[in-house]
Predict the 3D structure of the following.
Amino acid sequence: MRLESYQVKENNQLKHDGISYEVLAEKYGTPLYIFDETNFVQQVKKYKKALDNPYFETQILFASKALLTRAIGQLIAQLGIGQDVVSAGEIYTAIESGVEPSKLYFHGNNKLDDELIFAIENNVGTIVIDNRSEAKRLNAILTTQAKRQRVLLRLNPGVEAHTHEYIKTAHNDSKFGESVFDLTIKEVIETLANYPTLDFAGFHCHIGSQVFEEQSFLDSATEMIAFAKMIEDNLAINIKEINFGGGFGVYYTEEDQPFDLETFLPKFVQHVYNKTQEFDLKLEKVTIEPGRSLVNAMGSTLYRIGDLKTTTSGKNYLFVDGGMTDNIRPALYQAKYEALITNKAEETADTIYTIAGKACESGDKIINDYPLPKAETGDLLLVNGTGAYNYTMASHYNRIPKPAMIHILNGVDRLTVKRESFADMMRNEL
Ligand SMILES: Cc1ncc(COP(=O)(O)O)c(C=O)c1O
């Protein structure tokens, strides 16, 4: 397993910022989500600085879907960045945690009327309209409330990216946004911009996730700016902001080679500026929405190893006390991870194990055929790179309570999410 900067091996033990994982397991139990707050804060500050420029205002909007708890919301509030939210629940959590509502961008392809009302009543800064039908509904709601709302429109710029490949296409079947190639797109934008209730500020796009090609972000920026200029010229509408979405790839295993965001962001800003100059577009604000790239490497999950089994075909299973209920990604889309036995950190990885969870599903595996030192019941297994889309996707399948979460800041650990009890799981059941 590739170690993070906060992990060190010492006397055959792996430690997180000086704290042994055994101590954490004793203190908080397992499975346990561990989040490195020190590096998270430093990284957000670095990225904010990397976006600084003399041309336009920039803002990082943390994509809540990657990881949102009260403690994370409080950090977002302290760091003064904005947040991408996709449900009333995420809006509620952000505001309860102290995030300024004006810094929230509300996304979603089917925002319910109740959610739109909730967003308006709570002064959410920007609603990112997904489609023409939503624009109509939002206008109707705002009319009855005699209110005006700042909005962006989500577009598909025809650049679709996923991991190492990206394509330019006029055909897309995504459930998100309106296509720039739709023959009626100008009418859609004109109608939206003419609603007296909507303060139409510009566009949003998000080209995919785990994207490793810098060029795909640069190309989508070019397409968006060219399109924005065409709209300005044709419809005499001022485009003030473009939100370029998230999707910056991160390291899970050796197969992933992410680019360095801190060096890419100044290049991206310069590219956006050059294109706005070329197309004569006066953007006031540029926003990006990183989720995974801000939190994934800060998170890891600690498990206690239970039974071990070798099948008649010779497959070695190593069972942990969590699994798909705390990390659904391998079962959902064959996501890959790396792991280490923290109390055998310096021993040779000479045995191949399939690390499986305790849920009643054959697909409940975290890593297939992975080399580890010879494992024993009671050892501690750490899986790195679980900061994003693990806690937020956790379930109660098999009535397994959700794990606790701790943050580690400058070598000090603190509980941020309590381990669920059985009673917690039954709380709303009559
Ligand atoms: C609209 C939007 N913005 C931002 C993100 C964050 O993506 P990532 O976590 O890959 O950076 C997503 C992820 O699905 C998204 O749909």
Summary: The radius of gyration is 23 Å. Residues 40 and 298 are 6 Å apart (CA to CA). Residues 63, 65-66, 84, 107, 206, 209, 245-248, 289-293, 388 surround pyridoxal-5'-phosphate (CB under 6 Å).
